[in-house]
Design brief:
47% of the residues lie in helices and 15% in strands. The protein has 236 residues and is α/β, with parallel strands linked by helices. It binds zinc ion (ZN).
Length: 236
C-alpha cells in the first residue's frame, strides 16, 4: 500500500541504500535521494549512483513517476575533523575500543541531520536510511535507539513531524537480498548485484557472483556471505 508521504532516501549507491530506495519507491508517492561526498576512499559509489537511478526508473513506470530529484551534498568537513580508514589511506583494523577504524564518529547522525534540513526545505516528511543493527560493524550510530533518539531530537529541534524509517534495521545481509527480491523481483536483484558498490577500498574489479569489489575487506566479506546464503536459500 502506498501513502501520500513524501520520502528522502539516503542513497549512497551501495547494496543497502539501493534496497532502501526500492522499498521507498514501493510505498511513497514521491521519493527523492541524497548522497554525501565526504572524501570517502570508496568515492566510486558516488559515480555509480546516476546509472543506478536511471535503471531503477526503467524497472517500473510507477517508480519512474515517483522518483524525484537527486541531491549530492559536500560534507568534506567530515574528512577534516575525523581520522579513519574510510577517509585516509590506512589499513582497516580493530581499535582498542572494539570498533574498527572504519568507524567515522557521528557520521550517520550527521547524515540524518543534514538530510532532515534538506527534507524540511523540500517538503519531505520521511527519511529512509539503511542503518542496520543485525550484522553491522558495531557502529553505535547505526543502532535503532540512536535513530529513535535522533528522530525525537530532530522533531523537537525543528518543530517537525519527521519519520525516520530504517527497513534494514533488524535483518541480515541474506534477508536484505530477499527484501530486494520482494520489492523489485529478479530484475532489481540483478541490478543491485551488478551495479551497486559496497567495497570499502573502492575497488571495482571483476564481477563476482555477489557483485564488484576487492573480496577481502569487511564490507565485501559481508556482502559475499549474504549473497551466498541468499542464493542457496533461493535454490533450495
Ligand atoms: Zn572490498
Amino acid at each position: 500500500m502506498t501513502t501520500t508521504d513524501r520520502a528522502l532516501v539516503l542513497f549512497s549507491g551501495g547494496q543497502d541504500s539501493t534496497t532502501c530506495l526500492a522499498w521507498a519507491l514501493q510505498r511513497y508517492s514521491h521519493v527523492e535521494t541524497v548522497a554525501f561526498d565526504y572524501g570517502q576512499r570508496h568515492a566510486i559509489e558516488l559515480q555509480v549512483r546516476p546509472a543506478i537511478l536511471q535503471q531503477m526508473a526503467a524497472l517500473s513506470p510507477e517508480w519512474a513517476t515517483r522518483l524525484g530529484p537527486d541531491h549530492l551534498l559536500d560534507l568534506g568537513l567530515l574528512g577534516q575533523i575525523s581520522d579513519t580508514a574510510l577517509t585516509k589511506d590506512v589499513a582497516i583494523q580493530m581499535q582498542d575500543n572494539g570498533l574498527p577504524n572504519t568507524f567515522v564518529p557521528g557520521r550517520n547522525l550527521l547524515f540524518m541531520m543534514v538530510a532532515a534540513t534538506l527534507a524540511y526545505r523540500r517538503g519531505l516528511n520521511v527519511l529512509v536510511g539503511g542503518m542496520c543493527e543485525t550484522d553491522y560493524s558495531g557502529y553505535p550510530d547505526c543502532r535503532d535507539d540512536s535513530m529513535k533518539a535522533l528522530q525525537v531530537a530532530l522533531n523537537l529541534g525543528m518543530a517537525t513531524r519527521l519519520k525516520l524509517e530504517t527497513p534494514l534495521m533488524w535483518i541480515n545481509k541474506k534477508e536484505t537480498w530477499q527484501l530486494a527480491q520482494q520489492e523489485g523481483g529478479a530484475a532489481l536483484v540483478e541490478l543491485i548485484r551488478s551495479q551497486t558498490h559496497t567495497c570499502y577500498l573502492g575497488e571495482r574489479g571483476q564481477l563476482h557472483a555477489w557483485g564488484h569489489g576487492c573480496g577481502h575487506c569487511p564490507a565485501c566479506e559481508l556482502r559475499a556471505k549474504g549473497y551466498a546464503e541468499y542464493a542457496a536459500a533461493s535454490a533450495a
